[in-house]
């Protein structure tokens, strides 16, 4: 009789636990909308066996890829399995498939919710063309990896399949950190001061913010139906860099300050509470771990009749302070909110800046016009207002919204406002915050009146 290999059991990291709790009450058929995916092009001389071997090596190196997640009487746990002899890889023949079509094929395989307790929360698909591997597609439940973790998997997979990927080759020379070690460290006595400081930050928010503003009830994000549009504008990217240089504030701080005005205009409030996503990758060895590290951090802001330069500096400083408290036990925070407010903790008004390649040096000319287009979001549930800024020459600025809060015409008007005002900030460093807020409200009102 063969004996099943024993799993090593550990508590969840705080990042894993946040994913677990945030999705607890979501309909399971909505879970695949939250899965992350990446595509690795396969070189012509790489065989299917070589691709499969590369994916097996990833599983051996990173415990998240061979972990099951179970609810137990002691709370959620991660069960890390020994390295298996083989790895499950689907092969999908799609002659002439583009990268986007290959990614869609990989996501199709993850179209049904993954049972985290019975199965590893990832899917591997090799898309072939005439029998030859063309792309390897990796899809993971968010509890397995966040965007940073997935980027490491992509780089390592590319290097393992023979690509000239310097980052992947460098990562392969490292011994990767593992989530179970982080989970035990976070709950250690040595980390008690950090846990108490984080809980103190939340107590301060509950003490100073009105109950009708913070926090939002969790049920607000449970109703499906989201729209999305994206602004792609090399000119806005260049303008953001110029404005950041002139204002003395990093690009992410400038755009967060501008987004707080957009949020105030959309919600009709004078004070807003944003949800930042703290990567929590500030110390070694955890900077490069393949796991879900992101946690939500509330940031209250109150725009006023002050120069935007001063407001942007304030916003940036407040955000840095908030990030310091981005690692916390969500169960402890949820209990605190339930005691103080009598509701289940929810989050809204998200801001996630990933355009860390925005140049802040002098620009010789305007790189080009904007393009605004409607897109269909994978996720049809969750935050009612969500702003995400991606890297690249067009700096895609993606806004996803509940149409009951911001209809499609207003969504397009808002993105045009972002482009206009970034260019104005680049040219005029003396702009007032209330003037920017007024132009946003005017743009939304004009569109609503049509």
What does this structure look like?
By secondary structure, the chain is α+β, with helices and mostly antiparallel strands. The chain has helices spanning 14-23, 48-61, 99-109, 147-160, 166-172, 179-186, 192-208, 234-247, 251-267, 308-323, 330-341, 408-427, 433-449, and strands at 8-11, 36-41, 67-72, 75-80, 90-93, 122-129, 132-140, 227-232, 272-278, 295-301, 350-353, 371-375, 385-389, 397-401. A seven-stranded mixed β-sheet has the order 10-9-11-13-14-8-12. It has a four-stranded mixed β-sheet with strand order 2-7-6-5, with helices on both faces. α8 (234-247) crosses α9, α9 packs across α10 (308-323) and α9 (251-267) packs across α13 (433-449). The mean pLDDT is 94.
Poorly predicted ranges: none
Strand line-up in the sheet with most strands: 10-9-11-13-14-8-12
Number of DSSP helical runs:
13
**Average residue pLDDT:** 94
The rounded distance between the terminal residues' Cα atoms is 74 Å
Query: In angstroms, what is the radius of gyration?
Result: 23 Å
Task: Tell me the total number of β-strands.
Answer: 14
Element pattern in H and E: EHEHEEEHEEHHHHEHHEEHHEEEEHH
Task: Describe the largest sheet.
Answer: 7 strands, mixed
The coarse silhouette is globular
Structural class: alpha+beta
**Helical residues, percent:** 25-40%
Give the DSSP E fraction (strand runs of 2 or more residues).
15-25%
